[in-house]
Amino acid sequence: MVAEKLRWGIVGCAGIAIRSVIPGIQQSSRGEVVAIASRDEEKAKQTAEKLGIPKAYGSYEALIADGDIDAVYIPLPNHLHKEWTIRAAEAGKHVLCEKPFALDASEAQEMVDACDRHGVKLAEAFMYRYHPRYSRIKDIIASGEIGTIRGIHGAFTFNNSGNTTNFRNDQSMGGGSIYDIGVYPISAARLLLGREPEAATVHAFFSPEHGGVDMMASGLLEFAGGVGLTFDCAMWAAGRNTLEVLGTDGRIELPSAFVCNPSEPSVFYVTAKGKRREERLDAVNQYSLQADDVAASVLDGAPLSFASSDAIANMRVVDACLESARTRSRVTISNG
User: Fold this and answer.
1) DSSP string, 174-201
2) Does the structure show a pLDDT above 60 at 1?
3) How many distinct structural domains can be found in the chain?
4) Which of 26, 176, 244, 283 has its CA 20 to 30 A from that of 52?
5) pLDDT at 105 over 50
């Protein structure tokens, strides 16, 4: 491919696309948004006009058939991720699929296989991983400054309980807090520890007012060596977005662990042997960095920073968490 920039099509007008991902691609070094689709053509046109996107389509089919599009971003409700990832792959489009990647690990495997079969790249849209602070945190851990890791705690909560018609409250569409935001601390623990958990135990509040989905969940993931991730996620609780890594000689605290302001420096704190310091990184747009990573893979042949196989592994953990919450039991995780 000789194009200097990766040409993106957006499959759907979801809020995350409009607020964050489209602006991120537009501000990236190597991406441009050339089209957007909605099943409501007027909505697509209005969104395109608002965001300065050249083309608007009234169907997803029309967008993925557009020969001027190299890659698609899929922010559709969770139960549609598999279908439209595979259909995009069959049309020769590279795919950035919103989290959670799929409804289960089996679906995730089908998606990865389809993209491999058609020779296209596939990435999961965990934007936080592309922020340089996570590389810095991994370096601090590897240096031994905070000693041996004893545990990680992550929290991602918000209150959306008044919006009872939201797809997040529909079990058939992949609703619930574990799917929606629990995936973040799960992914982060796997990233920072560099290995897979062995078992999950999760307790959840399933709300009859919200389609029976888990509106709050608290969990424990067991890693080798006695290390655990404790996490909670909620769609009916006060807002939090934090991560703490606890070592034998210190700890790392991220006050805005997953969502951060792209126009402000990113700050986290390191306490080692009784002394606490601030680590400050320049403002960056993690959505732009995510888009540029995909572009480098497509345009230059560089490996994706996070292989699509990681999405399958993350979904295995999510599967175990959901099974544990529903059965109120400890669930062993099969890795591979």
Assistant:
1) T-SHIIIIIHHHHHHHHHHHTS--SEEE
2) no
3) 2
4) 283
5) yes
Catalytic position from the list 99, 138, 273, 275: 99
Whole-number Å distance between alpha carbons of 37 and 54: 11
- Average the pLDDT over each of 69-83, 103-117, 157-171, 178-192 and give the range with the smallest value: 157-171
Q: Is residue 306 part of a domain?
A: no
**Predicted pLDDT at 210:** 96
Residues 217/202, Cβ–Cβ less than 8 Å? yes
Q: What is the pLDDT of residue 165?
A: 86
99 as an active site residue: the answer is yes
Domain holding 77, by residue range, is 6-128
Q: CATH no. for residue 61?
A: 3.40.50.720
Q: What are phi and psi of 162, to 5 degrees?
A: -75, -15
Of 60, 95, 128, the position where a domain reaches its end is 128
- Phi first, then psi: what are they for 56, rounded to 5°? -135, 135
- Cα distances (Å, whole numbers) of residue 274 to 138, 141, 182: 20, 16, 31
Over residues 157-179, the pLDDT tens digits come to 999 999 888 899 999 999 999 99
